[in-house]
Each structure stands twice: as C-alpha cells, then as structure tokens.
C-alpha cells in the first residue's frame, strides 16, 4: 500500500485495548444471546491495524495455548511488536508488516476472532474493502469480528475543524507533528477571532485543553490520515452484511441495554422501528454517538435464555481498575458479586449456593459491567507468561520503549499509574 494513504511518519500510541480481549468479546456475545467461539484446542485471534502490537503480545503471554496474529502497514510498529515478544519469550504471536490486501493472501489459520480498533474510518475505501476482504477470507464460521470506528452523527460538529486541519497540514512543511503545530496556531487564532464554527463539536469545544492534555501523536493519527471519514452505523452494517456477517452487539457493554442509556419515551420510539439497523441509527442520533465498538458474527448460533444465563453465571470477572463508585449498587446480589470479586477474579455461579437466583445474578452482572465496575476476564491465564512480560514491561519503564501497562493475573492489562 502507498504509505501516502496513511500517516506513517509518527508512530501510534502503545496501548492495551481491553475490549479486544477474548473474554470481553465472549461476554458481549453472551449478553446479546449468542454462542461465543469454542475454546477447544485454544483459539486463533487476529488484529488488523495492530499498531505496536501491545494488545496481541500481552494476550499471547496470557494464553500460550492460543495463536495470535497482528497485521500493520508500518514496519516500525511490527518491529516493536516482534522485539517485545522476543524479549518476553512469547512464541505464539506472529506479526506481519503488510497492508490488508497483501495480508489477505497470507497462508494464515482461520480465526475465531478478528479485531480492528480505531482503523476502519481512518483508511480509504479501497483499504476498507481490503480489510473486509481479509475478514471474509479468514473468519471461521461461528467467529466474531470487532470493528470500532468514528461515527456520525456525533462527529458532525467537528467536521469543519477537521477539514481545516487537513487543508492546513497538507500545505504545511516538516513532519506531521510540525504541520499539526503550525495548523493549530491558525485554528486557535481563528477561534480567538470568533470563528465559532470551530467550536461546534466536542473536540473543537475543548480544543486548547485537549491539545494540552493529549500527545501530539493522538491528533496526528486522529485527524491527519487523508481518508478519515466518520460513517453511520447503517453504512458499516451494509458493508459487513456484504460478506454475510450479522450484527451481534456492542463491546461498549452498556450500549446493549437501552434502559441504561435512554429515557422511556426514547426507548419507545426506538422500539417502534421494525428494522434493527434503523433502531441502531435512531439510538446513535439520540445519544449523539461518535465512536462505536461493533461486534459481528459469521453464522453464530443463538442461545436460549437458560443457556446464556448459565454461561454468564460461569464467566469469570474481576473488579475494574479504578473502581468508579458514583452509581450505588444496593441490590444484595450486586453487593455479593462485588464482595466476591474483592477477593480476586471469580464467576458469580459461586453465589448460587447462597440463594441468589440465576436471573438476578445475570441482571446484576450486566448492570455492574455496564457501569464499568466489573470486567470479564480469562477463566485461566498463564502465570509464567504473565510474569515474563511484566518483567519486560518493568525493565522498559522510563525508556524510549516504555509501554505504560501491567498485565494482571487474570490476563487483563491496566495502565501502570492506575495501580
Ligand atoms: C489509529 S492506529 C490503531 C492502532 C491500534 N489498533 C490501536 O488501537 O492502538 C491505525 C493503525 O492501522 C494501520 N494501518 C492503516 N492502514 C492500513 C492498511 N491498509 N493495512 C494495514 N495496516 C494499516 C496503521 O499503520 C496504524 O498502526
């Protein structure tokens, strides 16, 4: 792929994305009433546009029985990921410095899960088609696809800001950060002179504050890829339907339950729409959504309520870091779940013997997960692999190769300063 189609002169942030973990994707499928991919003989997982490969490397350390692949156009990202795995002696992750078109032709396993976080709306239509083509060729029946993307209508107010940034940086000189900085001087001056249109969106509204708080690389990768274009959920759904995949739900857990996000009249209006894609579009308008984490499935089996309930009660959770206690959870089952997890990761089924009914446990699990109080995590993760990668992460702290995360025993990583 021609690197002019993407910003390649500034490396992307190094981060672990928890919604990409197999346990999180399984839980998303379960609460939406679908059977997650089988774990027999391990699983195969692939990230498209994996950046520095932090998520696949850390997941591979925790799951040595499974296979991980990361694909990214930028050789410096792939070098970084390969070096990290070599240092931590991780043998079950492979990385490929290729674009999606070339990667689709690789001789790879068929995957149980394919994920692409923060990629789809930053690449042009041809690369989007290549990405979808890769999924078509490599996703197993019963497998899940995670695609996150910037969406409309939430970004509508920031489109004039983005257009001007692109125009100014295209005419600037120096690397992407230098061009961003000089464009920013004009944007800030225009805002100061009363160009209110540059403050219409959530990003423009807090522009100076966000520029101070976030690294320049974030703005470069957010705004400068020439193809960046937020899309409506209906557009993505129709592209994915073209390869026979169906929507499962959202990896932003609370978005699967209208009662947590919409008032009653809004819920009634949404429910009255017959077409499920239209219902989703209406939700996005009501919530002014700007980012979606959509999960799709290929011929994924639906679950009846009893089977879904049993699997949700058997799912392992940990307490989220940090604990946001702003929403009180007074229900005795919720308090019992939180008390159980205080002692370490566990499945709520352990509480059935205390007289908590399965239905109640499930509704409290979903409420707690929606509020960000608990995270679904691996039932078993490899302590040896986790210790090895943590030793590397500690050794790199304060160096140019720093990755600011720690991998916890449950196979979930948190930002180091959060501890
Ligand atoms: C915004 S970054 C996201 C990185 C990572 N998924 C994350 O969330 O940290 C997008 C990544 O996609 C890669 N990319 C863009 N176009 C690509 C293409 N056509 N083929 C392969 N990788 C591509 C870029 O190199 C970049 O690392």
Beta strands, count:
12
Q: What is the fold-level CATH name, i.e. the topology of the largest domain?
A: Rossmann fold
- Indicate the low-confidence ranges by residue numbers: none
Multimerization status: single chain
Shape type: globular
Task: State the gist of this model.
With 419 residues, the protein is an alpha/beta fold. The protein is built from 18 helices and 12 strands.
Structure description:
The protein is α/β, with parallel strands linked by helices and 419 residues long. It folds into 3 domains: 11-153 and 230-297, 3-Layer(aba) Sandwich (Rossmann fold); 156-223, no CATH class; 316-376. 43% of the residues lie in helices and 14% in strands. The protein has 18 helices and 12 strands. The strands form 3 sheets. It has a 7-stranded mixed beta sheet. Helix 2 (54-62) links the parallel strand 1 (44-48) and strand 2 (67-71). Helix 7 (176-192) packs across helix 10. It is globular. The model has no long low-confidence stretch (mean pLDDT 94). Bound molecules: S-adenosylmethionine (SAM). The site of S-adenosylmethionine (SAM) has 22 residues, from loops.
Give me the secondary-structure topology.
Elements: H1 22-31, E1 44-48, H2 54-62, E2 67-71, H3 75-87, E3 93-96, H4 100-104, E4 111-116, H5 125-138, E5 139-150, H6 159-171, H7 176-192, H8 202-205, H9 207-213, H10 216-223, H11 233-241, E6 246-250, H12 258-261, H13 264-271, H14 276-287, E7 291-297, H15 305-313, E8 316-319, H16 332-342, E9 346-347, H17 358-370, E10 374-376, H18 383-396, E11 405-407, E12 413-415
Parallel strand pairs: 1-2, 1-4, 2-3, 4-5
Antiparallel strand pairs: 5-7, 6-7, 8-9, 8-10, 11-12
The structure holds S-adenosylmethionine (SAM).
S-adenosylmethionine binds at residues 1, 6, 12, 15, 17, 49-51, 71-74, 77, 99-100, 117-119, 122-123, 127, 221.
